[in-house]
Amino acid sequence: MAESVLSVVLPLLIEKLVSETSNSIARYKGIDAEIEKCHDSLKLIQRVLADASRKGITDDAVKGWLNDLQHLAYDIDDVLDGWATEAMHREFSHDSEGMTSKLVIEGLYGVEAVGSELYGTGQAFPSLEILSFDDMCGWKKWSGAVFPCLQNLEIIGCPNLVEVTLEALPSLNVLELKNCDSGVLRSLVEVASAVTKLIIRDISGLNDVVWGGVIESLGAVEELSIWECNEIRYLVKSDADATKILVKLRKLEVRECENLVSIGEKEEEEEDNCRSNLLTSLRILEVNECKNMERCSCPDGIEELTVWSCSSMTVVSFPKGGQEKLRSLTIWNCRNLLEKEWEWGGQKMNNNRSSSMPMLELVWINEWPNLKSIIELNDVAHLTELRIHNCESLESFPNNLTSLEKLEIVNCPRMDASLPGWVWPPNLRSLEIGKLKKPFSEWGPQTFPTSLVKLKLWGEDGAGSSSEFSHLLPSSLTSLEIHGFEKLESFSMGLQHLQSLCFVFCPNMKKVCSHPQRLTSLQHLTFSHCPKMMDLPEMLLPSLLSLNIWLGDYPEGLKERCSKKGSYWPLISHIPYSSVTGSILFYYKGIGCILLVKCCCILVVFCI
User: Fold this and answer.
1) Residues in domain Disease resistance protein At4g27190-like leucine-rich repeats (predicted)?
2) Residue 604: count of CB within 10 angstroms of its CB
């Protein structure tokens, strides 16, 4: 019994000894050295206990020693809690004299009440602006304080705090509660009417009824984040008074609320084109990993919408005309979202041929297997970034995105970008593409815009040499990344403006042409998971500003040649930043000296 208790208590004691609170009181009492010895002794006892458990020692003398040690541990715990309480009292007293603007109290496991016994009856804290309580599992009651200037309050890991009776908090703007009881939330929002940012996470007892009462006190809130509140089924009642509920809310973030069904109570019963008067000030909506949420009916006027990993989501809709201010749209890993139920202005996407999103600037879609077409994005005048990944049914694509600057189309196996008639956006600067209907090396002639400077190619490509696709690459490129070309063995091409070259997961890659006239501007070179790359392009090394090699299964010989005594060292020692991950050496090149330090799995070279 004593052994099992100690296995739990000892780590807590060690944690308390090294806490900020214990260090503070130790310095105050001038017993730093004694505390350090006590810490070392507890660590030794912990190791002895683990060894005895491992060897199955059951001697009566050992059992007696463990019982004595258990009582000693409890005594130490009482002393540390006493110190912590004293430290908290000193901090509160210090602030009551107008000396402190920030106060952090953590790890006081034995404190049950924070009130007049610590800071006196009716005592005010005139200068305190930031107050944080963390990891106080025994804390139950907080009362009697006045914080006229408090702006930021954080309570984390205080699950037993249920009674909070404070005076008004007129200056409080930011309130953050994690792993607390819903009673704390109710009590604080009632005395903090000026809160503009509220973050709540893992609040026990926060069901629809309790939340309905809380939300009535959030009239000033502009940003609301709700994480892991699994008892809430909806955020706003259908019969709520629109003039009183979250009238200033601009950003709403909901994450990992397992039982959340919808934002509004009765969305599924409303007409598709019905414009609700609720949450009309909302501009940014993020819904993340709410696995039981089936429908997202967006309020009118949304500018940024993110729906991320909602496995049950089938419908995302707007009221008629409600999407016209949309600037950013992200749909990520919502595999059950139906294209036929994707509604814009009450019209299904496939039937709406004119742009109903005139302000759209960013679209990011990933893991949407039911999506077949996005041609409805045609003629969106402000769209500058379009990212589409892992959409297995996508076949058609807009051909008139004149403002597009960044385009990603990856792993869309029915999409064919190889046709000679394919029209690339005229202002395109960055392109990430691959794993389409045809591999890149089999594409026909392409007319890339001269503005294109960054290109990332994704394999499964059958090319064994870069000569099989070099004719497709525009001379304007300054950055090229080749990712997942499994058969590629060599690379040699003349790109005079290329500054950055990167190879990732090219398992047969062996050679990069080192003739300096081929890559005259190269400054950054990277190899990642290219295990057959045994030789570096020596003639390119003198001009490099960075060299990165992620070794993985690389030959030991390459590691040795990149070390301080290796043959490549004279060629790479000048490079401002070089890393060879997989070694155990760390180099720092300073002024007139090189320091060698043991480090885990990395070789780094810096020049100053």
Assistant:
1) 145-258
2) 18
Answer yes or no: are the C-beta atoms of 234 and 262 closer than 8 Å. yes
Residue boundaries of the structural domains of the chain: 2-96
Asked if 439 and 418 touch (Cβ cutoff 8 Å), the reply is no
Parallel, antiparallel or unpaired: strands 234-236 and 251-255: unpaired
8 Å CB contact between 84 and 107? yes
What are residue 304's DSSP bridge partners? 284, 328
- HSE value, Cβ hemisphere, 13 Å, CA-based, for 560: 3
Angle between helices 60-96 and 32-55 (to 10 degrees): 150
DSSP string, 302-319: -SEEEEES-TT--EEE--
- Say which residue the tokens 């409303």 belong to: 270
Q: What 3-state class would DSSP assign to 92?
A: helix
Q: Angle CA(400)–CA(353)–CA(368) in degrees, nearest 5? A: 80
List, in order, residues 6 or more apart from 356 with CB less than 8 Å away.
321, 323, 324, 344, 345, 347
Tokens 């060698």 belong to 596
Residue 504 CB neighbour total at 10 angstroms: 19
Tokens 């990642």 sit on residue: 528
Nearest-angstrom CA–CA distance, 76 and 335: 55
One DSSP character per residue, 58-69 reads --HHHHHHHHHH
Residue 187's φ and ψ, nearest 5 degrees, are: -65, -40
Closest CA relative to residue 42, chosen from 2, 86, 7, 83: 7
pLDDT in tens, 346-376: 444 433 444 478 889 999 999 998 888 887 6
Say if residue 405 is preceded by a cis peptide, omega within 30 of 0: no
- What would the pLDDT profile of 573-604 be if each residue is shown by its tens digit? 888 877 766 543 333 333 222 222 223 333 33
DSSP 214-267: HGGG-TT-SEEEEES-TT-SEEE-TT--TTTSSTT--EEEEES-TT--EEETTG
Q: How confident is the model at residue 233 (pLDDT cuts 50, 70, 90)?
A: very high
d(CA 606, CA 594): 10
Percent of the chain with pLDDT over 90: 35
Q: What is the mean pLDDT of the chain?
A: 78
**Strand 130-134 to 102-106 pairing:** parallel
- Which single residue is written with the structure tokens 């004149």? 402
Residue-level pLDDT at 496:
86
| CA dihedral sign, ordered 198, 361, 398, 418 | negative
Where is mean pLDDT largest: 1-10, 141-150, 216-225, 241-250? 216-225
Within 10 angstroms of residue 98's Cβ, the number of other Cβ atoms is: 12
For residue 144, give the nearest of 116, 125, 117, 113 by alpha carbon.
116
CA distance 154 to 131: 6
CB 257 within 8 A of CB 292: no
**Contact predicate 78/109, CB 8 Å:** no
